[in-house]
């Protein structure tokens, strides 16, 4: 196989040298290469937040003025319990 710069003519010559029964595999491979190339253009996922980022984000203390929460640990436990024991509906099966 040739290394370095490959011309369109070389690719077509190699394709013509294949039995037509292998052309589907060539098309599949071209599809794979296109898919892989499209993934290279995807934006990288954002970096993970640090504790400092979280403290500066206005999320900490967001509910500080709520008077219906009381003990935050008990409130969190109650929310988890409700989420774990809620009735599943037909819409929840996804």
Describe the structure.
- The protein is mostly helical.
- It has a domain at 8-40.
- The protein has four helices and no strands.
- It has helices at residues 8-16, 23-40, 51-55, 72-84.
- The mean pLDDT is 84.
What secondary-structure arrangement, pairings included, does this model have?
Blueprint: H1 8-16, H2 23-40, H3 51-55, H4 72-84
Descriptors:
elongated; 4 helices; 94 residues; mainly alpha; 48% helix
Characterize this entry briefly.
The chain has 94 residues and is mostly helical.
Shape descriptor: elongated
The structural class is mainly alpha
Mean pLDDT: 84
Largest sheet: none
Whole-angstrom Rg: 29 Å
| Tally of separate helices | 4
Number of E strands: 0
Helical content band: 40-55%
Uncertain stretches of 5 or more adjacent residues: none
Instruction: Give the N-terminus to C-terminus distance in angstroms.
Output: 49 Å
Give, in order, the helices and strands: HHHH
Binned strand content: under 5%
């Amino acid at each position: 196989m040739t290394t370095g710069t490959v011309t369109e003519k070389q690719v077509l010559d190699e394709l013509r040298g294949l039995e037509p029964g292998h052309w589907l595999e060539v098309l599949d491979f071209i599809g794979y290469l296109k898919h892989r190339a499209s993934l290279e253009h995807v934006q990288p996922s954002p970096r993970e937040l640090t504790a400092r980022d979280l403290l500066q984000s206005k999320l900490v203390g967001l509910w500080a003025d709520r008077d219906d929460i009381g003990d935050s640990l008990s409130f969190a436990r109650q929310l988890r319990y409700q989420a774990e024991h809620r009735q599943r509906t037909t819409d929840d099966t996804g």
